[in-house]
Amino acid sequence: MLQTELAAKALSLCSETALSVSQFLGKMGGNHAKGIALARELQARGLLLSTTERRTKGRPQCLLRTSPLGQQFMRDHSRLLNLRLHSNDNDIKRALHHANLALGLVGQQVSPYARFQEVNELARNIAGIT
Question: What are 46-86's pLDDT values in tens digits?
Fold first, then answer.
């Protein structure tokens, strides 16, 4: 299962400039095996791109870069982190009241879901909707 916070951090590191695997692992910190597993999972999901760059000497270098889908993931993740949920005292009181009503139904061995369906069916019949 992909941890969104860790994925967002990894994608943000590779979004500015392409990083070699060793640079990526150094900036991510922690366990190298987990870092490589994360990079592979991000690649499998299409969020991270891997390209090979030839150098004048030595082995070719593997560079990691955020894909367009990965950039969209980062934008959506950032937007969701900044999303504020608003509730007031009346909302909380209403939720507690509904929870107590549901507990009362359960105490009488009546399914709250079944009762909800019955009320909806009754409302549809009154409105003339079939």
Answer: 999 998 888 788 788 889 999 999 999 999 999 988 887 78
Burial level of 69, CB count in 10 A (0-12/13-18/19+)?
middle
Give the bridge partners for 53, in sequence order.
Answer: 61
- Asked if residues 65 and 49 have their Cβ atoms less than 8 Å apart, the reply is yes
Could you report the per-residue pLDDT of 3-41, keeping only the tens digit for each?
Answer: 888 899 999 998 888 888 889 989 888 788 888 999 999
| C-alpha span between 130 and 126 (Å, rounded) | 10
Location of structure tokens 């009503």: 101
**Coil, helix or strand for 97?**
helix
Q: How far apart are CA 78 and CA 12, in angstroms?
A: 11
